[in-house]
Amino acid sequence: CGWWRMIKHIRICAKEWQIWEFYFGCAGSLKNFDQSDIGMPLMETRDFIARNYVKRYTINPRLFENLVASVFKSLGYNTVVTGYTHDGGIDIVLTNSNNNTIGVQVTRSKRLVTVKQIREFVGSLSIAGIPKGVYVTASSFTSSAVKISGKLAFTTAPIRLINASTFYDALKIAQVNDKNHQLLPFNIDNYRIPHINFYGWENPMNSL
Question: What phi and psi, each to the nearest 5 degrees, are found at residue 179?
Answer without folding.
Answer: -70, -35
